[in-house]
Design brief:
single chain; seven-stranded mixed β-sheet; 13 strands
């Protein structure tokens, strides 16, 4: 079994400082095999905000895999945004914008879905999908994608869907992705997607915001995924009202459907 913590949308610079220690303590106490963070570590991609994010990452005991979000490129510095959009991210967080974690029971692929020339709307490149599928070709165990922007959204979602999302769903389904971890919307949602004729269904897991004050009527949260043979258990941990701890709140379980996909 593998245990994977999924965080998203920390937004240092618009964060709740009282939640920082409880979040670090809870994640470390869960002893996951990997912490995956699906973007928006900062609010405005400023050096001080990246420094705070780096200090947070350094306090986490497990290995960490991070991808950038749209808030991690400059908004108010057009020259940096155009020519060096990921300069601060590479300096403070990781030079690799699409990192990979492999072990005997899971392969986790980061996708950079940030479009520096569009403030919110993401995009996914063909070459990134091809790279992910090539990595999955000889993968052992679970195949997991980490991206900032969701692959599928509901009709009422107020943000525009990512460019290339439909193509991404097709390709990732074809190459056997089991789980897609995303953020961006600041709400919690778990469900199968790509469950259509000719496709294998994957489990799409949205995390809300781990630390930000930019709530969408939901508490700060993160996910714990337990990946066992033929079974995926997702436990949502939410901040208690006092802000002194994160506690389990909801659980979803999925089982292999025998046809290469997943069902609740």
């Amino acid at each position: 079994m593998r245990r994977l913590v999924h965080l998203s949308d920390l937004h240092f610079g618009r964060d709740r400082p009282e939640l920082l220690d409880p979040l670090v303590d809870c994640v470390n106490a869960l002893s996951p095999d990997l912490v995956a963070i699906s973007g928006d570590l900062t609010q405005r991609a400023l050096a001080a905000q990246f420094h705070a994010a780096r200090a947070f990452l350094d306090r986490l005991v497990p290995p960490v895999l991070v991808v950038p979000g749209n808030h991690d490129v400059p908004l108010y510095n057009p020259l940096m945004r155009w020519f060096l959009p990921f300069h601060q991210y590479r300096r403070w967080i990781d030079r690799d914008l699409e990192p990979v974690h492999r072990d005997d029971e899971m392969t986790v692929i980061g996708l950079n879905t940030v479009n520096p020339y569009s403030w919110q709307r993401g995009r996914v490149h063909r070459h990134a999908l091809a790279r992910a599928c090539n990595a999955f070709a000889d993968a052992k165990g679970y195949r997991v994608i980490v991206a900032h922007h969701p692959m599928e959204q509901e009709p009422g979602d107020h943000k525009k869907p990512m460019r290339g999302a439909e193509r991404a769903i097709d390709q990732l389904s074809d190459c056997g992705a089991d789980v897609i971890l995303t953020g961006h919307l600041h709400n919690w949602r778990v469900g199968t997607f790509a469950a259509r004729a000719g496709r294998n269904s994957a489990v799409q897991v949205h995390a809300g915001t781990g630390l930000s004050t930019r709530l969408r009527g939901e508490p700060n949260d993160f996910n714990l995924l337990e990946l066992e043979p033929g079974r995926i258990t997702i436990t949502r941990h939410v901040a208690v009202e006092s802000g002194t701890a994160f506690e389990p709140a909801e659980i979803r379980r999925y089982t292999a459907d025998g046809a290469g996909g997943w069902t609740r």
